[in-house]
Amino acid sequence: MTLLILFSVFGLLEGAHQGILNLYHQKYNGDGTYYGAGTGGTCSYPPPSMPPVASKLDKLVALNAPQFYGSLSCGMCFRVHGTGQGAGNDPITGTFTAYVKDLCPECHAGSLDLAENGDGRWKIQIQAIQCPVGNTKIEYKFQGSNNWYLKLQIRNARIPATKVEMYQPKSHTWSALRHTTDGFWIFGNDHIDKPVVTPIRVRLTAANGETVVDHIPRLANDAVIHGDGVQFSLDSSLPH
Questions:
Q1: Nearest-angstrom CA–CA distance, 42 and 64
Q2: Which of 46, 99, 118, 124 would you label with 151, given CA atoms 20 to 30 Å apart?
Q3: What is the DSSP letter of 21?
Q4: Is the Cβ–Cβ distance between 121 and 41 less than 8 Å?
Q5: pLDDT category of residue 222 using cuts at 50, 70 and 90
Q6: Helix count and strand count (H, E) for the chain
Q7: Which residues face 103 on adjacent strands?
Q8: What was the pLDDT predicted at 46?
Q9: d(CA 205, CA 43)
Q10: Rounded-to-integer distance, Cα 161 and Cα 139, Å
Q11: CB-neighbour burial class of residue 155 (10 A; exposed 0-12, middle 13-18, buried 19+)
Q12: What is the average per-residue pLDDT within 53-75?
């Protein structure tokens, strides 16, 4: 039974990992809609602390439920093309970039809900691109955390992390964290040394398999924290 459960969990993780990569490798057709201006949402980027890369893109959006992958798609960047075909008063036309900060629970695969005021349902095509992070680095943010419990957000990544591990200094091992539906990572089934001491050493694995190691110097809730200054590399095989 234990092996079956582990296999099932592994299968879900692998499926999400491949699903994220498919968003880069394929173009998807769907509908573009509007749900009103605002920066809040499922991905837990409350104002004024949107990741730096968000300001470099044209629009903020909510991604459809099938391709949200339990919030692993939070912080992804998309190239969107609107055909102007559809119904309503505010057609979506031309090509623009978008930053995922929310979930559209009723949207079908290939669809986006724009975080701005507008009207109608319009034909669009979407494809993920590597976020234009420039010289900025990966950031971290804790929520409701202490030395006995961590809830950690990975922010401003070029490509989303689909695996996050924390080094255990007593056992000299890496323990996998579990992803939450609101865009954070918390303790999973692996052993965690408690109380947690800082700096916290983390290992991040991107959807394309690249791994980086960083140190989070302090534990402070609701504050943007910078580590050693690492970022996932630009992947020549993925759109950017």
A1: 12
A2: 99
A3: H
A4: no
A5: very high
A6: 1, 14
A7: 63
A8: 80
A9: 19
A10: 12
A11: buried
A12: 96
* Residue type for position 216: I
φ/ψ region of 41 (left if φ > 0, alpha if ψ in -120 to 50, else beta) reads left
3-state secondary structure of 216: strand
pTM for the predicted model, two decimal places: 0.91
- What one-letter code names the amino acid at 78? F
Residue 11: its pLDDT value, please?
39
User: How far apart, in Å, are the Cα atoms of 68 and each of 72, 78, 91, 107, 217?
Assistant: 6, 13, 24, 10, 30
Q: Nearest 5°: phi and psi at 212?
A: -130, 150
- Residues 6 or more apart whose Cβ sits within 8 Å of residue 236: none
Listing DSSP states for 143-172 in one string gives: SS-BTTB-EEEEES-SS-EEEEEEEETTTT
Q: What is the rounded CA–CA span in Å between residue 16 and residue 69?
A: 6
Q: How far apart are CA 90 and CA 87, in angstroms?
A: 8
Cα 175 to Cα 143, 166, 169, 179, 189, distances in angstroms: 20, 5, 11, 13, 9
How far apart are alpha carbons 34 and 110 in whole angstroms? 15
Q: What is the pLDDT of residue 16?
A: 52
How buried is 37 (Cβ within 10 angstroms: 0-12 exposed, 13-18 middle, 19+ buried)? exposed
Phi-psi bin for 222: left (phi > 0), alpha (psi -120 to 50), beta?
left
Between 174 and 49, residue with greater pLDDT: 174
